[in-house]
What we know:
Layout: E1 7-12, H1 32-40, E2 46-51, E3 72-75, E4 78-81, E5 105-111, H2 134-141, E6 145-151, H3 153-166, E7 170-179, H4 186-196, E8 200-202
Parallel strand pairs: 1-2, 1-6, 2-5, 6-7, 7-8
Antiparallel strand pairs: 3-4
Amino acid sequence: xxxxxxxxxxxxxxxxxxxxxxxxxxxxxxxxxxxxxxxxxxxxxxxxxxxxxxxxxxxxxxxxxxxxxxxxxxxxxxxxxxxxxxxxxxxxxxxxxxxxxxxxxxxxxxxxxxxxxxxxxxxxxxxxxxxxxxxxxxxxxxxxxxxxxxxxxxxxxxxxxxxxxxxxxxxxxxxxxxxxxxxxxxxxxxxxxxxxxxxxxxxxxx
Length: 206
């Protein structure tokens, strides 16, 4: 992968709660950190996303009596997986991994802070219409391609990649810098969906 000056690295949700020992740990999630740090050293421009939920968020299973974590319900905006409480605003679980190199990040996009709606994508809430503002930021600054890595491949990375393509950005996902949750085959489905949408799935890193 040849990195251009108008490329941007989008590091998605490399937070304590998504790594081993966290409230919603992705298997081997901490293994993305050295890959992401190595990637970041090659980019002039880096943006981070941070899951940032209020306590009692509507996507938490605990907010729906009798519902189990990882089950699915229908919300006004569509199907919603119910999660264990995670990435609650201001908690250690919501913090970035301490070994993640964040010092060169030019912007942090916080998402999931609206109590009534979840937000996987770096670009939109899960209604797919309420924007985070990231697209406008990228366009105003003239970025051509968005390269992504982080957690989790089949949720926040996939949603972000598909939205980036839908918005007209060239998009690449660096697979060694991602790990998936894989609920009922969601990882394979995500890989297929991204490939079919024109997302470049990159195996090598600089």
